[in-house]
Design brief:
By secondary structure, this protein is of the alpha+beta class. The radius of gyration is 19 Å and the shape is globular. The strands form two sheets. Strands 1, 2, 3, 4, 5 and 6 form a six-stranded mixed β-sheet that branches. 31% of the residues lie in helices and 28% in strands.
């Protein structure tokens, strides 16, 4: 049995998410500062006669393993774009550690991991621009998850500007295990123009710099999500009140809330506090991935 190929699918965090306008085609123009945390799903693959997917992990029961799964959709899309770019079949195994429909890009990260895996198997590695274009066809967050590094995304998520530096930070992620519909959040979002992200400091190397910048930003989806699920606002308040938390905010369309910390100790203490007071929530503490 050959050694499996392994790709991590890290949780994405929208540290800031500005919805600047709704386009005539119904899509929303976004500007978002993405970061990725050291907590992830894991995708493994070995050559097989045909493509198949098996699931494990704490959240595997919330997913199907059929062709609608984003992993298999990503593999099929790669094969359609580069027919000679991978083995005839793959036995794929996804360990689902991240909550589903949680605003941390679990499905998008899994799809991106599948694309990276396929690109690694290709006799001639596809150009990154072509891979990003393919990723965008699978979902708005998939291009950013393809890189899994600090970056600013614009457009509908396909225009990426990776950051050359980023401060060392730790994140605590808290999810009430309440799925939130992204489509419903955007449907309820008031269709008006909003300001873009302010310019980032250059170089961006210190936590204090990022904290001051984040104070001038927002997640435009958070008020809508809180109106639908008030528990999100309660988590933001509780996590933001823990010692050392420089910012607590919802990620993406929710319901995951993140807190940012400048050191590992306060982050793990905050995670322990949240687990103690919210034993029915999913809680994780991890460093943010650096460029």
């Amino acid at each position: 049995m050959p050694e499996p190929l392994v790709q991590a699918a890290p949780a994405k965090l929208n540290l800031a998410l500005h919805v600047t306008r709704r386009r005539p085609d119904g899509y929303h123009e976004l500007e978002s500062l993405f970061a990725f945390a050291g907590v992830a799903d894991e995708l493994r693959a070995v050559p097989a006669a045909s493509d198949r997917l098996s699931l494990a992990g704490p959240f595997a029961g919330q997913l199907g393993s059929g062709p609608g799964n984003l992993v298999l959709r990503a593999v099929a899309a790669f094969r359609a774009r580069w027919p000679d770019g991978a083995p005839a079949g793959l036995d794929l195994h996804l360990v689902k550690n991240l909550p589903v429909a949680a605003g941390i890009g679990g499905g998008s990260a899994d799809a991106a991991a599948a694309l990276r895996l396929m690109a690694g198997l290709a006799p001639e590695k596809p150009a990154l621009a072509a891979l990003v274009e393919l990723a965008a066809s699978l979902g708005a967050d998939v291009p950013a998850c393809l890189l899994s590094r600090p970056l600013v995304a614009r457009g509908v998520g396909e225009i990426l500007a990776p950051l050359p530096q980023f401060p060392a930070l730790f994140a605590v992620l808290v999810n009430p295990l309440l799925p939130v519909s992204t489509a419903e959040i955007f449907r309820r979002l008031e269709p008006r123009a909003r300001p873009a992200l302010p310019p980032l400091p250059e170089p961006l190397t210190r936590p204090a710099q990022l904290g001051l910048w984040l104070a001038e930003t927002r997640n435009d989806l958070e008020p809508v999500a809180v109106a639908l699920a008030p528990v999100i606002g309660e988590i933001v308040a509780a996590l933001g009140a823990t010692p050392g938390c420089m910012l607590a905010r919802m990620s993406g369309s929710g319901a995951t809330v993140f807190g940012l910390f400048g050191a590992a100790g306060p982050a793990h203490q905050a995670a322990g506090h949240m687990r103690q007071h919210h034993p029915d929530h999913w809680v994780a503490a991890a460093p943010l991935l650096l460029p």
